[in-house]
Amino acid sequence: DEAKNSFGSDWGDFQSFGNIYMAESTQYGKKSAIAQVNAAYENVSITFTLVFDKDMKLTGFWMK
């Protein structure tokens, strides 16, 4: 909620997701899957970036 509120308190209703873009990254010998998607709400648009390890466990989450 704290991260969400940094974009404003009234996002409005969810409208739609945009295209999902995915990539693979290797850092320090460890592979990760990275997914990025835009989400449109009535009053704000947010880009979500999610990072997963090789077991598909969520290891990173960013909003911008």
Strand content: over 45%
| SSE order | HEEEE
- Regions with pLDDT < 50 over 5+ consecutive residues? none
3D shape: elongated
Side by side, the strands of the main sheet go 1-2-3-4
Secondary structure blueprint with pairings:
Elements: H1 2-5, E1 14-27, E2 30-41, E3 45-52, E4 58-63
Antiparallel strand pairs: 1-2, 2-3, 3-4
Describe, in short, the structure shown.
By secondary structure, the protein is mainly beta. It has one helix and four strands; from the N terminus they run H-E-E-E-E.
Please explain how this structure is put together.
This protein has about 60 residues and is mainly beta. Helix content is about 5%, strand content about 60%. It has one helix at about 1-5; strands spanning about 15-25, 30-40, 45-50, 60-64. The radius of gyration is 14 Å and the shape is elongated. The model has no long low-confidence stretch (mean pLDDT about 90).
